[in-house]
Amino acid sequence: MDRLLKFLGGAVLGGLVGASVALLLTPASGEELRARIQDEIERVRTEVSDAARERRADLEGQLAALRAPSKPGPV
Hints:
This protein is mostly helical and 75 residues long. 83% of the residues lie in helices and 0% in strands. The chain has a domain at 19-55.
């Protein structure tokens, strides 16, 4: 699980760096570039928020399953 989280973190970071470099190297006016960067920041913020919300729901479900009384097995 730890390896998966590290991979996903690296992929997200790499995507952000790549997108930033692409935006900075593309010819555009300063105002247009600022608007594009702001749009990209808002998109990433929304994606991170959605992913956090989904992960929280998953973890809360796992916690509820762990807290639920277990059925007694054969003795």
